[in-house]
């Protein structure tokens, strides 16, 4: 029985090993693969962003926003920060996406709402001017004055190190952000609370 | 072009897209979408700066996590504000929300 299993395992492993050596011979380095992945994620970000800011249907805009979040999560993976990528999926797509969806639904602002028509031309021109300004100013500076840093090995960040950091040097920000979240939640409940007398007066 | 520049260019792109969305949208919900895109770019810039330089990468990633937490708290509060504005004005277009205090409103 054991012999059969080991034979099956070796039969499975042999083509996988061959594939691995083939891939290693084909890819001159990991740089090209990383560049291709980077281009893919940036295309995701641009497409999602254009949908998010241009769609006249807010639900579609939210789907574009989620596409952008997915692209950024891929960039985090490319940065060898898997924990951040999963947090991006959980917090942004999971929490913020659902919150935006609630905001759209609670304001009855779907395909026939106030966003249904295009904004006026001056607004579009001014918006693109304001958006291109940081791109035109910071972009060249970023390319010219990029810090020259030597090669670093990109190893995935240890999640245990992140947890250790949260209870040592980042303890105060960690507690502060829990207070901020609590205050935000209480404030949201307080703002949205409809008092009984106000309801009876209407 | 170093990897740091590439990641920073991506986050700069996110900032620009967010600004365009923030300005051209006419409702609070659309503006919230723009703000979220901008905050996402900020987190990416911090994480890339910590990972691609000699700085401690744990510090940078924790800072990005705090940015994400702040974005979640901000989205919660903005949702509540949108609800209040919708209840009071009946619409959430920024052009129509110009009254802070009026006598007719209880």
Characterise the protein shown here.
The complex is a heterodimer of chains A (202) and B (106). Chain A has 202 residues and is mainly α. Among the domains of chain A are: 29-118, Four Helix Bundle (Hemerythrin (Met), subunit A); 158-202. Helices cover 78% and strands 0% of the residues of chain A. Chain A contains eight helices and no strands. The longest helix of chain A has 25 residues, at 2-26. The mean pLDDT of chain A is 83. The longest helix of chain B has 33 residues, at 57-89. Chain B has 106 residues and is mostly helical. Chain B has a single domain, classed as Helix Hairpins, CATH 1.10.287. Chain B has helices spanning 3-24, 28-52, 57-89. Helices cover 75% and strands 0% of the residues of chain B. At the A-B interface, helix 2, helix 3, helix 4, helix 5 and helix 6 of A face helix 1, helix 2 and helix 3 of B.
